[in-house]
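Attaching the record inline, Q. Sequence:
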Amino acid sequence: MSACAADGERPRQAQPHPVRHSPVHHPVHSPVYQDVQRLAPGERPPQFVVISLDGAGGDDHGWFATLLKAAGRAHAKLTFFLSGVPLHRRQSERLATAWRHGHELGTYFNGHVCGRRGMGAWRTREWNRRIDQFYALIENGEKLPFDVRTAIRGGRTPCRDVHRPSRDAAYRAHGWRYDASATGAPRWPRRNAGLWEFPLPTLPLHGTRRRVLASDQALYTAHSHARPAAAGKWPAWRRQTTQTYVSAVNARLTGDRAPVFIAHRFENWHGGSYMKALIDLMTRVCPKPQVRCVSFTELTDWLEAQERKTLARLRNSS
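Structure, as predicted:
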């Protein structure tokens, strides 16, 4: 079967059912991985929550270490999408620490090159060149304790208007497994042309009839039109953000259990209200026995361990 197999089907030897897999170890990734188990017929899946951070090379506000500590307490794994810049020593040390603790690194490419003359015009050859440029930029800085060319297995494009067939062909050529660039309704993921699609969902904004994208930037815009605001409003916005995220997880947990995706940046908007809400979320939901706060690659591993009929059952429940 080719690398572009249907959903959930990767080349593997036939195994008896039920299967309890030993931990899946990918030598190109962090050494810390959770067990990947195949569901029995009719069994409920875990509630996956995937938290990602865009622009992980930069951290002007000191959030990186705080997030790692919070994730450790909550038994959560995070995905850090790294922009293509030469790393200085402190950046390299932060990323190395994250990797050693089981967190994932992905790509955020090399800047917001959007529009018809940017990513929208790129075809496969240009995407390949830009990916190789990303690798070269990272390798030009302080060394990391792993090979970035094999460690990265997916990414998020800063621009949404791209020619997806060309981009996806470049992803596959580099051995990548997923893309997290799209937006959409909460649902069980699909594998299209060999790549898993993990769209960022829109969520009900707690206490209102509005919906917002599951990101700090969208909430910052909803609260203050992406402008600074009086500090007296910050606590209420933090609480609303926390409850928006927690309610989204609880709705899926008691419903179809489709994964919940949340994307943040290393920003300090409204005194760090959104980062604090993200930590509140991890503290409240990740330790629950039915919840798994995992990286995109860990979710990919789990999906690919399932039988095709199991994935069809999960999708039909959405």
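Residues 1-6, 8-33 have pLDDT under 50 and may be disordered. The chain is about 35% helix and 15% strand.

More tomorrow.
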